[in-house]
Design a protein that fits this description.
57% helix, single chain, 8-stranded mixed β-sheet, alpha/beta, 369 residues
């Protein structure tokens, strides 16, 4: 299933909460596509250097970089120029959108220097996810790659990525922001003195809590930013249209646990309601069945072990068996409640996926599955 997606799609979005193996899955999908000769970019916005470490690329940045020949060979890729990786820069991505919408260099500089803008593009909830969609749109429009695999930002919930463009667009289009951003009666810096009595009084009262300097920064930012509002809204709509196309695919990466499966099913329903294509689930770190769980079986295999050691091993084996069975029940529930959606499973490795050898193991497993 995953090999077919890597062969036929132009965009693959790996979504899911943080810590479930999205980065590893995205890299593995890139490996599968590159082995088939497709020029592939794996892009992440995760500030942690997991992708760079796994692919053997030092100082991974916003500019896509190809694998070294040695790394490509270690991953079973015949052409090192077939697989590229990049780590998206949130601030840079927002800046590029502003630059495309604002022709005046002085106004661009005022926007970039404004602390409100820096706050929005760095710490506002949804800013990383929205930046990821902006970067995806630009990369797809450039047409330099046969496949783009996006490793979405680490979040508590998978839906954060899906909802980020809408939330940002709604915030920008809100009546309050539009009121602030209306064309000024005459050019110049925003000032509370220029407001009508009612709004000015309300803002002066607010200023007692947040400070008048903050209100000045906010007003100046919104007055300058009004020329960019249309671009933000248009780009959000363009991203949504891009992700609805048949050439796009969503993979939801999850842990085989009750809460994660519940969220996966909700995510699947939201994708369907939005007309977006969910092409598969990837259940990561699945435990194998322990095999021997009875004390007499372990004693037969380990005749030199003490009785205390056998008791400990028996208890551990029984616990692992219960955990393995619970995981398989959740995978079966996922298959039952999301019929027709493929599920790939990845076994739990004995070590973290932080080397080329471990990443190749994951890639080989997903390619066969």
């Amino acid at each position: 299933m995953l090999a077919r997606l890597a062969q036929t799609k132009r965009i693959i979005v790996c979504a899911g909460p943080g810590g479930v193996g999205k980065t590893t899955t995205a890299a593995a999908m890139g490996i599968i596509a590159a082995r088939r000769g497709r020029r592939t970019l794996v892009a992440t916005i995760d500030p942690a250097p997991r992708l760079a470490d796994a692919l053997g690329i030092a100082d991974l940045g916003a500019e896509p970089r190809p694998l070294s020949r040695a790394a490509a060979e270690a991953l079973g890729i015949g052409n090192a120029e077939a697989l590229f990786a990049s780590r998206l820069d949130t601030a840079r991505t927002f800046n590029r959108l502003v630059e495309s919408q604002v022709a005046d260099p002085a106004m661009r500089r005022r926007i970039f220097d404004n602390p409100i803008y820096r706050q929005i593009t760095s710490t506002l909830t949804g800013s990383q996810e929205y930046a990821a969609t902006l970067a995806l749109h630009d990369l797809a429009a450039a047409g330099q790659y046969d496949l783009i695999v996006l490793d979405t930002p680490p979040t508590a919930h998978a839906l954060d990525f899906l909802e980020a463009p809408r939330r940002i667009a709604e915030a920008i289009a809100s009546p309050a922001v539009q009121w602030f951003a209306r064309p000024a009666a005459r050019p110049g810096r925003f000032s509370l003195q220029r407001l009508r009595a009612g709004p000015a009084l309300a803002l002066r009262r607010l200023g007692k809590f947040v400070g008048s300097r903050f209100l000045d920064d906010l007003g100046a930012f919104l007055l300058d930013f009004r020329d960019v509002l249309g671009g933000f809204l248009a780009r959000a709509k363009a991203v949504e249209e891009l992700l609805r196309k048949p050439e796009a695919a969503f993979l939801l990466v999850l842990a085989p646990e009750v809460a994660a499966v519940n969220e996966a099913l909700y995510f699947a329903s939201r994708l369907r309601a939005a007309g977006l294509p969910l092409n598969g689930f990837v259940a990561n770190r699945v435990l194998p069945a322990p095999g021997l769980t009875e004390a007499h079986e372990l004693r037969a295999r380990l005749p030199q072990a003490s009785d205390a050691a056998i008791r400990e091993l028996t208890a551990t084996a029984e616990y692992l068996q219960r955990l393995s069975e619970a995981q398989r029940r959740e995978i079966a529930r996922l298959a039952h409640d999301a019929p027709g959606t493929d599920i790939a499973t990845v076994p739990l490795l004995a070590h973290d996926v932080s080397s080329l050898g471990a990443l190749r193991t994951i890639g080989d497993h997903l390619e066969r599955g």
